[in-house]
Amino acid sequence: MTVVTLAAPDDFDGFRAAVRGLVGTPPAAVTWQVAGDDAGLFGDAAPAGDAPPLRVPKAFPDLARRVICHRDPERFALLHQALAGLQARPKLLDDAADPLVRRLDMLDKAVRRDVHKMRAYVRFREVPDAEGEHYAAWFEPAHFIVRLNAGFFVRRFASMRFSILTPDLCLHWDGIGAEFTPGASKADAPDGDPLEATWKTYYASIFNPARLKIASMQGHMPKKYWKNLPEAELIPDLIAGAGERTRAMIAAGGADTSAPVAEAPAVAGPKSLAALKAEALGCQRCPLWAPATQTVFGEGPADALVMLVGEQPGDQEDLAGRPFVGPAGQLLDAALAEAGIDRTRAYVTNAVKHFKFEPRGKRRIHAKPELPEIDACRWWLDAERAALKPRIVVALGATAARALTGRAVTIGRERGRAIAQPDGSELWITAHPSFLLRLPDRAAAAAERMRFVADLAAVAARVTAIAQGA
Description:
By secondary structure, the chain is of the alpha/beta class. The chain folds into four domains: 2-117, no CATH class; 122-188, no CATH class; 196-251, no CATH class; 273-467, 3-Layer(aba) Sandwich (Uracil-DNA Glycosylase, subunit E), CATH 3.40.470.10. It contains 17 helices and 15 strands. The chain has helices at residues 12-20, 59-67, 75-88, 99-121, 146-156, 196-206, 214-220, 235-240, 242-251, 273-280, 315-320, 327-339, 371-388, 398-405, 411-414, 433-438, 442-467, and strands at residues 2-6, 30-34, 44-45, 125-126, 135-138, 162-165, 169-173, 178-182, 306-310, 347-350, 357-360, 363-366, 392-396, 419-420, 426-430. The strands form four sheets. A five-stranded mixed beta sheet has the order 4-5-6-7-8, covered by helices on one side. Strands 10-9-13-15-14 form a five-stranded mixed beta sheet, sandwiched between helices. The radius of gyration is 26 Å and the shape is globular. The termini are far apart.
């Protein structure tokens, strides 16, 4: 039995170095442990020396870097099995039905969710020290993600000296370099600061009781995170009073007068599309702004009858700063032309305005936006609709339909028909052009393309009817 001892639970570099020396060793003959664990009290030391290189797809190192952060004690052995399997089956990771691949995918998704939760629910409190302003936060991650997430916080708060304390590992940033220290206890974290009262007042003022969905709220912000969020202590009372506040809003004609209201400048009607675009360039409503190159706002004439809404910008759109200029945009242009819709007379935008991706070597691979990101960006989409006042809105794909309707939508059940909207417009739902590009079967792709063009042709017929006053 060979025993490999890694320096830390998330020691990716140590795992990579060790596994290179295990070429030819059956995974079942290896016991993996972390320094300080009680496992692996017998056996030989890990082999050392030069070893033949391992062949792995570009996606595997990034997958392994995340999976190693999971708390599953079998994660190292599973990755070792995958590496051994990849030597015989280079396309192993493409087999979604393989039990090992499914297991790794589950671990990967759990770590991704935990990474997102940390970015969403870390709350800094001011704790000045001898060097001046310093901020600290306490967070309890489900997995070993502090080192994995460090780059995000350093980039986002580069000019701020801060510490993030967790039970496993602590991150400290002094404006120059990052340092990691052993885990801390909650007693080491600050309890509050002078800004919390202001933050709670603001949080209470933006709470809309008429749109309260408790199950959805707890899905996005699970209760286990509440104890570390200063605003969370307000939630039970806000929920309890939601019914009465909603009735008060209705009686007052829509105004909620029972909660403290933060002062804000008066806004006279919807902003223009140009003003919205200028404002959106600095958007930081969700974490996607940090890794993206720029905000990709909508474009088109201010009097457009048709508004086309996609999911999010892709790699080429992120670099160009314009929606639908990549392969999916080229397919959309061709389909619109066949259907009789002039793209230059339509307004084209996305439900999410920043490119969400996973780096794989020099490539940036599209990653599907999550509900909090879609909901955060819905403000811009609603503002675009208010400024444009389109007669027809076309949702390209499930993400766009979710953003426009506020619910999950089945494309096959809803496509090809007009859905009346509260503002008098019509919503039409169809597939996203990138879906057509991903279909491997040529016959299926051709059939789906015909359905896509037919959906757009039905929209074109409605545009003609509206223009003629029908």
